[in-house]
Design a protein that fits this description.
The chain has three domains: 83 residues, Phosphorylase Kinase, domain 1 (2-Layer Sandwich); 127 residues, Transferase(Phosphotransferase), domain 1, CATH 1.10.510.10; 214 residues, paralog of FGE (formylglycine-generating enzyme) (Alpha-Beta Complex), CATH 3.90.1580.10. The chain contains twelve helices and 15 strands. The strands form four sheets. A six-stranded antiparallel β-sheet has the order 1-2-3-4-6-5, with helices on one face.
């Protein structure tokens, strides 16, 4: 007797617009999710297809696209990216970043592999996951985005070893009522996984116990506090490898005929001069505990809603992470629509990197030589944006009238260069790009720099570059 054969999926092998549908991989409330290939840019995607029986119900197509538009605004390193929505041949769909890694339990095992026995928890991955998911959830609360408490089926991994949230909109569960609900749900997930795989060390167990409120331990007051605690514990238990010792070598002058524009030539010359003038005995300052933090500032009238402004300007080291992610093809961000094709490395990038390697400049010096499009792309990659000019003014209020500038000093080098809100580097350091664009080709730069502390405002072309212009990021609803 012949066994009945399974009916093939009707969409497998079809082409929907720019997408060649391959195999179904999961299910959502809207319909099946397929692995697909985006032919226009040659990348794999997860294609969420609206089921015909759902599309036939009044209002459901509009609801599907409305939810898609809302999710498209969520740009964060720990949230699965939504690329676009569309329809073809009467079928509605949305294309998402494909998460094709191991199941979370296997991902959190050391040397995860098939049929492994006695595998123990990779605590470094566990702590990174806790911190990343906590920051993603905090991001959702900042934007008042209704979401479910985290569920293990909505925490996916990719082949690069990253964990991200997906399907965050409330579907078969009520939306989260508070950050504490999210902390508890996340704690129950990681606690159950740890117990399933193997016991964890005492410091990690105590962190999880705080998340779930066990043994009368002090609960975390916020998702940010949880993320910072997990990051600090990870750094303590698994400190990053020490950088290799600097190479002592005579530095030959670099040819600059590949650099376009007189400004770029001057930047490279300035960096080279620093390399020659400074010595390898340079003693870096101690990085403060609040490095990388943000300051809450009341926004401008009429709304006055609070925004988060980075305490320090974006540094060379932070920008390097972005440039390397772009080069590796792993960076997820939304560039300005008019961005020229680029790799987001300024023309003087090699010279800056050389100066850092030779300890002529600290990697904690403010990033400089970036144009407006570079700054916008970096901020999007961080899940943030540039502050508007009005927001910048609120953040900079109360700063000293003049500060003795240090050329490309660390962003925390001068403790006197702070505004009333605690925002550093608004007088010296580098002047900063803002989100305010008076015309389609210009943007406003604010603040003094090491070159001129009196230069407080300028309208420049968005492609302008200078060795005295950088930027910082902000988060929160845009306020003009």
């Amino acid at each position: 007797m012949t066994e009945p054969t399974a009916q093939p999926d009707p969409l497998t092998g079809r082409v929907l617009g720019a997408y060649r549908v391959e195999d179904p991989i999961s299910q959502s409330r809207w319909g099946r999710i397929y692995r697909a290939w985006q032919t226009t840019v040659h990348r794999p995607v997860a294609l969420k297809v609206l089921a015909p029986e759902i599309a036939a119900q009044p209002g459901h197509v509009d609801q599907f696209h409305e939810q898609t538009r809302a999710a498209a605004a969520l740009v964060h390193p720990y949230i699965v990216t939504l690329y676009e929505a569309g329809h073809a041949d009467g079928i509605h769909f949305s294309a998402h970043e494909l998460m094709d890694g191991l199941p979370l339990a296997a991902f959190l095992r050391k040397d995860a592999g098939p049929a492994q026995s006695g595998a123990s928890v990779d605590e470094h991955r566990l702590l990174v996951t806790i911190a990343g998911v906590a920051r993603a959830l905090h991001f959702l609360w900042q934007r008042n985005f209704p979401h479910q408490p985290p569920q293990i089926r909505n925490m996916l991994t990719n082949s690069l070893g990253e964990v991200k949230l997906t399907n965050i909109e409330p579907e078969d569960a009520a939306p989260s009522n508070s950050a504490q609900d999210d902390i508890l749900a996340l704690g129950l997930i990681v606690g159950a996984l740890a117990n399933e795989i193997a016991p964890v060390t005492k410091p990690v167990a105590e962190l999880v116990e705080r998340m779930v409120g066990a043994h009368d331990r002090k609960p975390f007051a916020s998702l940010v506090e949880l993320a910072e605690a997990a990051e600090q514990l990870d750094h303590t238990l698994y400190p990053p490898a020490a950088p290799p010792p600097p190479r002592v070598a005579k530095i030959a002058p670099r040819k600059t005929k590949w650099i376009a524009g007189a400004i770029s030539v001057l930047i490279v010359a300035g960096v080279a001069a620093l390399i020659v003038r400074n010595t390898l005995s340079h003693r870096p300052l101690t990085r403060p505990a609040d490095f990388g933090s943000a300051v809450t500032v009341a926004g401008p009238a009429p709304s006055g809603a609070s925004i988060a402004v980075d305490k320090y300007e974006v540094t060379i080291g932070q920008y390097r992470e972005f440039a390397e992610a772009v080069a590796a093809g792993t960076a997820k961000f939304t560039p300005d629509p008019r961005t020229p094709r680029r790799d987001y490395r300024p023309p003087q990038w090699d010279a800056i990197r050389q100066a850092v390697e030779q300890r002529a400049i600290s990697e904690d010096a403010p990033m400089f030589g970036v144009d407006w499009y570079d700054a916008v792309a970096y901020a999007s990659w961080r899940g943030k944006r540039l502050p508007t000019e009005a927001e910048w003014e609120r953040a900079a209020a109360g700063a000293p009238a003049i500060v003795k500038p240090g050329k490309w000093a660390a962003v925390y080098a001068d403790a006197t260069d702070k505004s009333a809100a605690g925002v550093a580097g608004v007088v010296a350091g580098v002047s900063e790009w803002t989100a305010t664009t008076p015309s389609r080709d210009t943007a406003i730069v604010r603040g003094g720099s090491w070159k001129d502390t009196a230069a407080k405002r300028a309208e420049l072309g968005r492609l302008s570059r200078s060795d005295a212009i950088g930027f910082r990021c902000a988060a929160g609803a845009l306020q003009k």
